[in-house]
Structures are given as C-alpha cells and as structure tokens.
Amino acid sequence: MLNILFICSRNRWRSLTAETIYKKHKTVHVKSAGTENNARIKVNAKHLNWADIVFVMENHHKEKLMQQFPNECSNIEIVILEIPDEYKYMDKELIEEIQDSVSCYISDKA
C-alpha cells in the first residue's frame, strides 16, 4: 500500500476532493491537509513522515512545506499538480484534473 498525502491551502476543496476520490481505493491510503493556519486539517510533521508521496496543488504549497518541514521533506517525493484554486469541493472538472494528474502514480482500478 502506498501512503499518499494531498495538500492545498485550506483543505476544503482541492485536497479534500482528492482524498474523497481515492479514500476507498484498494492500492493506496490517502490523507489530505492544508498549509494555512485556518486549514480544516493543518499539515504537520506526522503527516509528512506517514506519506510515501505528497501531491501539492501549487508550487507555493511545496515551498511552504520545504520551509516549515525541511527534514521531513528531504526523504519524500513532492509532486506539484498545478491545479489552481478555482474549484469547489467535488467539482466535475476538479475531479478530472486530479485523476489526470495522478494517473501515472495511482491506477484508476479502485
């Protein structure tokens, strides 16, 4: 099983949608968190130590993780999905964009 962490700013729309899409997947465990203080679930070192791979929605999320958690980030792959903050939770376009972006890491076979 692969442990996957999805990160956006507030963990309300993008990363939460990604977690919802993959939470019943048979080959991965997923969690999501946000980088902002007002995030639904704020990312911490424990999240990063748990993850095998981290998907961030934008480059500034990766920069924030690297700045706040340099030791934890040194041993994991962080992939920037380049999905802008212009979607609501479970938007059809957002779901498609997430699935297209992570398909080379997670098979669509749930």
TrEMBL record:
Residues 2-108 form the Phosphotyrosine protein phosphatase I domain. InterPro entries: Ptyr_pPase (IPR023485), Ptyr_pPase_sf (IPR036196), UCP029416_PTP (IPR016919). This is Low molecular weight protein tyrosine phosphatase family protein. It comes from Sphingobacterium anhuiense. The lineage of its organism: Bacteria, Pseudomonadati, Bacteroidota, Sphingobacteriia, Sphingobacteriales.
